Amino acid sequence: MMRAKSWEDDMKASSICYPAAVLLVLVGMVWGIQMAMSQDHSAMPAHAHLNLLGWVSLFLFGIFYQSHPAIDRSGLARAQVYVWILGTVVLTVGVGLVHTDHPVGDPIAAAGSLIVLLGMLLFGWLVLKGRSDEQTAGRRLTPAE
Ligand code: HEM
To answer: How far is the CA of 24 from the centre of ligand 1 (A)?
Structure first.
């Protein structure tokens, strides 16, 4: 029997990653279909960034968090996911504007790129912290000689 979804499940970083990744790729796919139908591929770099940051990367973060339950439940992991989603949306809008002849998109793309950079730095910190926590736990479990 399937376990009922609890409040704690909703608080997990991976529980945010998966639905957000599906939502973003659905937008990206509809955008791709629209590009193909209109035969105007000028916004292609924005479509590519939305799908690669919003679908592929976010889904990979979800897999990592799910396989590290202690990190998955941390507030910093949830913050990392929200920063990443925000950066993805801002970068996509900026790149889309730049490639459709709207120079106003330039500073927006720049801001988005810094936000996703921050998101990746946060993720890097969580990965390193997770590794050192695992090593400490491993040492504690090693029987005395
Ligand atoms: C319904 C689904 C999709 C449609 C209809 C679609 C459509 C398109 C179209 C028309 C282009 C422009 C191709 C060109 O001008 O050379 C494109 C480019 C691209 N798409 Fe999609 N796409 C879809 C889903 C995805 C997904 C899921 C991803 C990533 C996981 C993705 C990643 C890319 C990338 C990276 C490019 C740039 C390729 C290049 O540099 O030549 N797309 N897509």
So the answer is: 14
Which residue minimizes the CA distance to atom 29 of ligand 1?
51
- Measure 107 CA to ligand 1 centroid, in angstroms: 25
Length of the chain (residues): 145
What does the CA dihedral 47, 49, 52, 54 come to, rounded to 10 degrees? Answer: -90
User: In this predicted model, what pLDDT tens digit does every residue of 27-85 receive, in sequence order?
Assistant: 999 999 999 999 999 999 999 999 999 999 999 999 999 999 999 999 999 999 999 99
Atom of ligand 1 nearest to the CA of 41: 15
3-state helix, strand, coil split of the chain in percent (to 5) is: 80, 0, 20
